[in-house]
Specification:
- The chain is about 40% helix and about 20% strand.
- It folds into two domains: about 120 residues, Response regulator (Rossmann fold, 3-Layer(aba) Sandwich); about 100 residues, Arc Repressor Mutant, subunit A (Orthogonal Bundle).
- Helix 1 crosses helix 5.
- The model has no long low-confidence stretch (mean pLDDT about 85).
- The protein has eight helices and twelve strands.
Length: about 230
């Protein structure tokens, strides 16, 4: 069975060396890049299962790399590395397609834990309630085995986090979920920061669905959280 492949990108070679050592110890195959252009080329040629991406790269920035990946239709999970501690900077990274972020300096154990969480969420469920969830009178289809979403047969490119967020809400239409609950369900832990990231992912999810002509299916319940509702 092929090993899960991770692409670690940072212009500081000591960081990629440390990440490679810790992740390989966990059984992952790790390839590294030190420029944005190299990262894009490896992402295309090697098809990694996850990318750890520093945003402050020389030349082609990590931000530009992430935007290009999403423009190309890639749904590969991306964990961004950032030296910026401002919450709005982190939320901006999520808004352009990242699934999670880690602030420098970081512990290698934290990186391993985040990688495992993201990869676990990216896998189709072993025993789904049903392979295909059909909603909105058949217009919205969520295929849990293929990890795909369509609106009136139009494919919607979602990141793994966005897919799981939609699935979690859509399984119980009308049920209101708090940000705290959604953060626990998606990330396996919760804090104020993770609750704020839910807002960013909801915004991305809404935009991607509505650009296909769908109505707003994710309703905000002010002071509480979110719910899936078709009416």
């Amino acid at each position: 069975m092929a090993k899960t492949k991770i692409l670690a990108v940072d212009d500081e070679r000591n960081i990629t060396t440390i990440l490679k050592a810790y992740l390989e110890r966990e059984g992952y195959e790790v390839i590294t890049a030190h420029t944005g252009q190299e990262a894009l080329q490896l992402a295309q040629n090697e098809a990694p299962d996850l990318i750890i991406l520093d945003l402050m790269l020389p030349g082609l920035s990590g931000e530009e790399v992430m935007k290009q990946l999403r423009r190309d239709g890639s749904g590969v999970p991306v964990i961004m590395l950032t030296a910026k501690t401002n919450l709005e900077d982190k939320l901006y990274g999520l808004s352009i397609g990242a699934d999670d972020y880690i602030v420098k300096p970081f512990s290698s154990q934290e990186v391993v834990a985040r990688v495992k969480t993201i990869l676990r969420r990216s896998e189709p469920e072993k025993v789904p309630l049903t392979d295909l969830l059909t909603l909105a009178g058949g217009r919205l289809e969520i295929d849990m085995m293929a990890h795909t979403v369509t609106w009136q047969k139009q494919h919607i490119d979602l990141t793994p986090t966005e897919f799981n967020l939609l699935l979690h809400l859509a399984r119980h239409p009308g049920r209101v979920y708090t940000r705290n609950h959604l953060a626990e369900a998606l990330f396996g832990y919760n804090s104020f920061t993770e609750e704020r990231t839910i807002d960013a992912h909801i915004k991305n999810l809404r935009n991607k669905i509505q650009v296909k002509g769908a109505p707003n299916l994710i309703k905000t319940i002010y002071g509480v959280g979110y719910k899936y509702e078709e009416a």
